[in-house]
UniProtKB/TrEMBL annotation:
<keyword id="KW-1133">Transmembrane helix</keyword>
<dbReference type="InterPro" id="IPR055514">
    <property type="entry name" value="DUF7087"/>
</dbReference>
<keyword id="KW-0472">Membrane</keyword>
<feature type="domain" description="DUF7087">
    <location>
        <begin position="8"/>
        <end position="140"/>
    </location>
</feature>
<feature type="transmembrane region" description="Helical">
    <location>
        <begin position="86"/>
        <end position="104"/>
    </location>
</feature>
<feature type="transmembrane region" description="Helical">
    <location>
        <begin position="40"/>
        <end position="58"/>
    </location>
</feature>
<dbReference type="Pfam" id="PF23346">
    <property type="entry name" value="DUF7087"/>
</dbReference>
<protein>
    <recommendedName>
        <fullName>DUF7087 domain-containing protein</fullName>
    </recommendedName>
</protein>
<feature type="transmembrane region" description="Helical">
    <location>
        <begin position="116"/>
        <end position="138"/>
    </location>
</feature>
<keyword id="KW-0812">Transmembrane</keyword>
Length: 146
């Protein structure tokens, strides 16, 4: 009898790994931006750094408290109050929105290596935010899709 390898999928472990990867990417982004702050000026440093810190806080809080995004996705669809919908949408998609805003507010780097590191971390933060939000939405709405 042939043995088959199965993927041991666990929602909690997958989201935890995505959030850790997002936090590492955001940390690398912040450190790289800070190292280049003397060359890019105060405004070029300050605006994206604020978005990175906000994203670190939001994603870090969700990772540390192990907040389940499936509930946020379910509540986003089920509640009728616009204020609650906005709260759940910010919790669910806030990391992705902040990563995209950071991407578009990125200054021009003079150093090639710093630019490479920053942009790798930038695209990593966007990719992990898309993966995390997408997985939480899919798992949260899977019952409604059937």
């Amino acid at each position: 009898m042939a043995s088959q390898k199965t993927i041991d999928y666990s929602f909690g472990n997958t989201v935890n790994q995505l959030r850790i990867a997002q936090l590492v990417a955001l940390g690398l982004q912040g450190v790289t931006l800070f190292m280049e702050s003397d060359r890019i000026g105060l405004f070029g440093f300050f605006l994206p750094f604020i978005f990175i810190i906000g994203n670190l806080f939001l994603s870090g809080k969700r990772w540390y408290n192990e907040i389940d995004g499936r509930y946020d996705a379910q509540q986003l669809v089920n509640v009728s109050d616009p204020a609650l919908k906005a709260q759940y949408a910010i919790a669910l998609f806030g990391g992705l929105v902040l990563a995209i805003i950071t991407h578009f507010s990125t200054p021009t780097f003079t150093s090639g290596f710093a630019s490479f590191m920053y942009h790798i971390a930038d695209y990593g933060a966007i990719a992990t935010a898309i993966g995390c939000a997408g997985l939480e939405c899919f798992e949260g709405l899977r019952g409604k899709l059937r």
